Structures are given as structure tokens and as C-alpha cells.
Amino acid sequence: MPNPWLALDAGADPAERMRQVGRAHERFVTGELTTHNPPDGPAMRPVVADSWRRSAVALPGPDATAPIELSDDDLESYRAAHPLARVLPIFRDLLGGLAEDGEHLMAVCDAYGRLLWVEGTAKVLRGAEQMNFVPGARWDEAHAGTNAPGTALAVDHPLQIFATEHFSRPVQRWTCAAAPIHDPGTGRLLGAIDVTGGDHLANPHSLALVRATALAAEAYLRGRLSPAATAGSVVALGRNEARLTFEGRQWRLGRRHSELLVLLLAHPEGSTGDELGFGVYGDDASPVTVRAELSRLRRALGPELMESRPYRLRAEVEADFRTVVRLLEHGRVTAALEAYAGPLLPGSEAPGVVRLRRLVDDRLRAALLAAGDRTLLQTWLHSPWGADDLEAWEAYARLLPPTAPARPLALSKIRELQYEFGLATSLQRPRN
Fold first, then answer.
1. Ranges for the OmpR/PhoB-type domain (predicted)?
2. Which of 304, 351, 357, 368 is the most buried (most CB within 10 A)?
3. Is residue 142 part of a domain?
């Protein structure tokens, strides 16, 4: 069975595949192929077709160019503090030969798709500059369309993107392979490692190489975890289903069990069934339903991890949302923002989870506004959850020098949000 993450099957003709996918791309971007008549076919990989759909929604067209979000001192300070800076020597050791051969680039991006390092010979770097493949540029799918690092982040899996599979036309003369990198203590996505070059990269070896490099980086970071950090952890920020890791085992919980686990973590002293029922179901809580869910959760986790009188976790388990709050309590705003992977169980409407979500978000946002740090605000504003934060945009604009290139963009965004919020307010007014 063909590997869906590889760009070309064994024996495939690269030139013919490029033509086939190129024709499908033109039909798709001109509207001949739509969501109801999608770009599927023998030449199209599902991962690419899905990415084109996402890109078409997010971008103004197939000639869009990735924006540059970080530069100069902002870029230097941001990447110096990033966790992947610690494994940059590993990247250079394993991929440096490719970056020096005159045909390839090595690139490292953060979890938002911002390129932190792009390395290669001067000639190849000049070619990459023409499409803004430079440090500080935003290469997630929402800003650059289908591409290996951005799509690897979107699907959380190593993959290749070949030539005309790129959504943006200026990128279609390149081929790339990328793999995501995770924090071994929490499972949080840290970024991706990428190799970019010519069509010859569309082979199993390049994909295996970037995957091995990502695993080597994660192994290095794992070796520097404290024993307490490896005992147990829960990842619940930015995802609808919590993931629990404990003593080498891992559970991916469903929605209700994720909500119950989060509430148990928020109250380590223990909770009654009624308290947990209200936190999950509100006034509609049924004691029978609550007991049944708690019983199933306890069976899944085992009595060595969860007890029932009161309901609580028996072992020390760290949770990413509690880590963010603890860092804020110690005044470590930069570390808290780095640890924040998005809203707590964003799809949950359980009253107790909603309260916790607002608590974490409000504390983090207040700390960012109080810090008055331009780089921190920029990171918040260029995340999906901070993109429409009018007050943060206004604070960021005040910190920008009058001649800063980013200032017109910030002022334009402020006007856009003021209009949207004003329009929303007027629409909600009762008519006379």
C-alpha cells in the first residue's frame, strides 16, 4: 500500500506527476473544482487535497506570499528564548551537510509556522528570498498555503510536498520534506524541521531523514526533563480531547472524560460526584449519569491512578493549563506564553471547564498587556486565539516606533476590528 505521506510512489514519473497535479491545481484555483467537485484523482494525495481546501479558504489567491512577522531584534530575542534553540546543534549536525551542498535549505519553524532559522548557501538562500522563505516569515497554511512545514504542523505528521502540490504558485518550483517536533514532557507541538530543495527530494530518504532528526531532537529534550516532569502529564490546551501520560502509558480521552479529568486536576484535594456533575452538566446533572461516567473513567485509568471517595487523582500529574497559571504566578510571562497552546478544551461547554478556560485566558492576557513587551504581544496577536484581540492590537501599536514597517498593518487591523465590533454592536441594538 503506498505511503500517503510520500510525494511519489515507487516508479512514478516526476515530470508527469508534476503536470497532472499542476492541471488539477489550475482547475481548483479557477473554480472548476470545488468542495462538491474536489481535486481528487489518481495523482492527488488526500493530504494535499485537504490542504488545498484549507488554503483556499484562508488565502486571497494562489499567488499569495508569506508575510514577515518577526525581524531584527524581535526575531533574535524570540528565537533565543525558543525551546528549539537548544536543539539547533542537532539540526545542524544531522542536516548541515544538505544545507551546505548548494542545492538544499534547512529550515526550523515554531508551532505557528514562523521560520526561526533558514540555512543554506548564499545562492539557494537568494532563491528562497524571492518567495519570502526567510527567518521571521509565517509559513503556516493560513498564511502561505500548502507547504511541508506548514502542512506538517496542520496534520501533526511528517510529510513531503512536491512541486505543484504547493498551493501558492511562487513556491511550486520547490519540493520539501518536514516533520513536527513535540515537547516530550507535555506532548505540546513546538514546531517543525524542514528540508527544501529540488524535485529530487521527493524520495523516501528525505522524509526518513527529517523524521529521524525530529526524533533525535525530542530525545535530547526528553533527556533534560526532571524526574518529576516525566511522572505524569496532561495536555488539554488547544485540543478537544485531553491526552494523559503516566508511567509510560498514554490515554486519549473522549470529551466527557476529558472534562472530568480537567476538573479533577483543578481540584487536587478531591471533589464529590455532585460537584463534578455540576461542573460538567450544570443544572441538568443527573446523579446516575455522573456516577456512570466517573465509573467508566476510573476503570479506564485504574484504581492506582484515580480513587472515588472523594474523587481525585492519587498520583502527581502535571497539567499544561496549571503550568501556565503557575508560571504567571511567578511572573514568568514569556514562559507562560510559550507553554500556552490554545484555549482549554476549546469545544467544551461544560460550566466548570468554561470557568477554568476563562480564568487561564484572562490571567495570561492581563499579564501580556501589563508586561508591555512588543515581542510577547506580537506572538499573541499572530496566534489564532489572539488575532482579533483589539485591546492587544492597540497596546502593540503604541509600542511600535512611528516608522516601524509593522505599524501601518497594526493600525489597519485596529480599524478593521473597531468597525467589526461597532457593526456587531449596532446589529444587536433593539429596533424602535
1. 248-313
2. 368
3. yes
pTM: 0.65
* CB 161, CB 16: distance < 8 Å: no
What cell does 113 get?
Answer: 509556522
13 in the Ramachandran plot: left (φ > 0), alpha (ψ -120 to 50) or beta? beta
Please state the domain count of the chain.
Answer: 1
What is residue 40's predicted lDDT score, i.e. its pLDDT?
A: 59
Domain hosting 180: range is 14-222
CA–CA distance, 396 with 376 (Å, rounded to integer):
9
Note every long-range contact of 249-257, with CB atoms under 8 Å and residues 24 or more positions apart, other chains counting.
251/300, 251/301, 253/297, 253/300, 255/345, 255/347, 255/348, 256/280, 256/293, 257/293, 257/296, 257/297, 257/300
pLDDT tier at 127 (50, 70, 90 boundaries)? very high
Residue-wise pLDDT for 79-116, tens only, equals 888 889 999 999 999 998 887 777 899 999 999 899 99
SS3 113: coil
Q: Is residue 282 part of a domain?
A: no
The dihedral built from the CA positions of residue 418, 421, 427 and 432, taken in this order, carries a sign that is negative
DSSP characters over 387-406? TT-HHHHHHHHHHS-TT-TH
Beta strands in 209-305 (DSSP E): 232-235, 243-246, 249-252
- CA distance linking residue 193 with residue 1, whole number of Å: 26
Residues with Cβ within 8 Å of residue 100, at least 6 apart in sequence: 120, 121
Whichever domain contains 27, its CATH number is 3.30.450.40
DSSP tag of 137: B
What would the grid cell of residue 3 be?
Answer: 505511503
Question: Cis peptide before 310, with omega less than 30 degrees from 0?
Answer: yes
Q: What integer is the mean pLDDT of 232-256? A: 88
